[in-house]
Write a structure and sequence with these properties.
The protein is 44% helix and 18% strand. With 475 residues, it is an alpha/beta fold. It folds into 3 domains: 231 residues, 3-Layer(aba) Sandwich (Aldehyde Dehydrogenase, Chain A, domain 1), CATH 3.40.605; 173 residues, Aldehyde Dehydrogenase, Chain A, domain 2 (3-Layer(aba) Sandwich), CATH 3.40.309; 34 residues. Helix 8 links the parallel strand 5 and strand 6. Helix 4 crosses helix 14 and helix 9 crosses helix 10. The longest helix has 27 residues. The chain is globular, with a radius of gyration of 27 Å. The model has no long low-confidence stretch (mean pLDDT 94).
């Protein structure tokens, strides 16, 4: 595995200068061509994605909407915006007077060879956007699929090649865990991981000796806040959607629902008939064992567990959950959520803050109250009066805080994360006072200069007189 990764990295490094030298319009032409090809073959590729889930296929219609559509939207965003975002720019604001004659430019250059470590829950959309952004920025990419998902990224790579991507610019690595470990420590120029917090810790440990910069999109245990005045029917529909989508295996699916105590029973009543219509979802054995233990613990605290953990798992709701429940601090990829009655919004925010994950959050309620609450919620993305879907907007960056990771993917910020900054400063004219050797009175002179530039108005005229009284040396 290590030898295969080393060979792939060496091959990618050979391809990197040629791809980086391509004009941005040429790189985007490849992405546009791939987008059109993907759209033409959408149903076939969606079927491949749907069958990649262990334990049972996802609905093809869901894959088309949840993976294909946002991926193609992201490609079109790059086609329209990447050239302007990556263009060199002049710094804004006033240049210090003592730097007259200096003209500066801030450039965005590719990192080099980017390693994309892909997840298994959305094996096309999430790594696909990261791959396209890396390519648009001029990087060469090695992508390591999640176990069992290699065919998905092979298909994406084949589509890009057919659209004109040069050989060696995108390499799909083997999908086994050992390859991911070997690649994390191989010395790539940037690593982008979408995965669990535990996987993030292992990748960071492997990447640390080479000081490889990383973008970590990690686990979530998302909070939902139901404010007074919220439309409980809408809340129930949204929660049911979150439990149904991809069998609950979505990092920003609802997990902790903080609802005013007086509304909790009504929300549970509205939710019950919707749960009955949601089909069971396959849950991996390791996740199932964790979930079963957490449900036993929840029942022991007096919470009511509606549903039962099983390999083919129906949606599970824990009603009357206390804010100290361990389930509220865990990242469980299964169709489960807890209803936590609270006294008010302040109590909800305090209870939510006890969770170490801070990926996304949702607020239901009157818009003014929801907007007022949003700044108090720790999360990388806050959605008001909807769930999950608005975060697929290709203009928006996505990333978490705390145990949910760091760095950004998607949107303009995600594209810029695939670059390194270079500043080019040019000095014109003869004004270079700093080159002269120091003199005994320099400290007094420079103190007067600081007062002149930044001190109170009353002190500026005396400072100017002190400077003028000394022989000129350019300041």
């Amino acid at each position: 595995m290590t030898a295969a990764v080393t060979a792939a990295l060496a091959r990618a490094r050979r391809a990197a200068p040629g791809w980086a030298a391509q004009p941005i319009v040429a790189r985007l032409r490849v992405i546009a061509g791939a987008r059109r090809r993907l759209a033409g073959d959408a149903v076939s590729l969606a079927g491949l994605v749907a069958s990649s889930r262990p334990g049972g296929a996802r609905p093809v219609a869901e894959v088309l909407v949840a993976e294909m559509l946002p991926l193609l939207d992201a490609a079109r965003f790059l086609e329209r915006e990447a050239a302007a975002l990556l263009a060199p720019r002049r710094p804004r604001g006033m240049r210090p007077r003592w730097l007259r004659g200096v003209r500066a430019e801030i450039r965005r250059e590719p990192c080099g060879v980017v390693l994309v470590l892909a997840p298994g829950n959305y094996p096309l959309f999430l790594p696909g956007v990261q791959i396209l952004q890396a390519l648009a920025a001029g990087n060469v990419v090695c992508a390591k699929p999640a176990p069992g998902c290699g065919a998905v990224l092979d298909a994406l790579a084949g589509t890009l090649a057919a659209a004109g991507l040069p050989d060696g610019v995108l390499t799909v690595l083997a999908d086994d865990v050992g390859t991911g470990i070997a690649a994390s420590g191989a010395g790539f120029d940037r690593i982008v991981l979408t995965g669990s917090a535990e996987t993030g810790q292992r990748v960071l440990a492997q990447a640390a000796p080479a000081l490889t910069p990383c973008t970590m999109e990690l686990s979530g245990c998302d909070a939902v806040f139901v404010l007074p005045g919220a439309d409980l029917a809408l809340v129930a529909e949204a929660l049911a959607y979150g439990l149904r989508l991809n069998g609950g295996a979505t990092c920003i699916a609802p997990r902790r629902v903080f609802v005013m105590a007086g509304q909790a029973a009504a929300l549970e009543t509205a939710l019950r008939p919707l749960l009955a219509a949601i089909p069971p979802a396959p849950v991996p054995p390791a996740v199932l064992r964790r979930l079963a233990a957490l449900l036993v613990e929840a029942a022991a605290t007096g919470a009511r567990v509606l549903g039962e953990a099983a390999a083919s798992c129906p949606p599970i709701v824990i009603a009357d959950a206390g804010p100290g429940l361990r389930l509220l601090r865990e990242d469980v990829f299964a169709p489960v959520l807890a209803l936590v009655p609270v006294a008010d919004a302040a109590a909800a925010v305090a209870a939510a803050a006890a969770c170490p994950y801070a990926l996304g959050a949702v607020i239901f309620g009157p818009e003014p109250a929801a907007r007022a609450l949003a700044p108090r919620v720790a999360a990388g993305a806050v959605v008001i009066n909807d769930l999950i879907v608005p975060t697929a907007d290709p203009r928006l960056p996505f990333g978490g805080r705390h145990r949910s990771g760091f760095g950004l993917t998607r949107g303009a910020e995600g594209l810029l994360e695939m670059t390194v900054v270079k500043v080019v400063a040019v000095r014109r004219g003869r004004f270079r006072p700093h080159l002269a050797p120091p003199r005994p009175d320099d400290a007094e002179r420079f103190a007067a200069l600081l007062t002149l530039l930044h001190g109170p108005w009353r002190a500026r005229l005396p400072a100017l007189r002190r400077i003028a009284a000394r022989p000129a040396r350019g300041v």
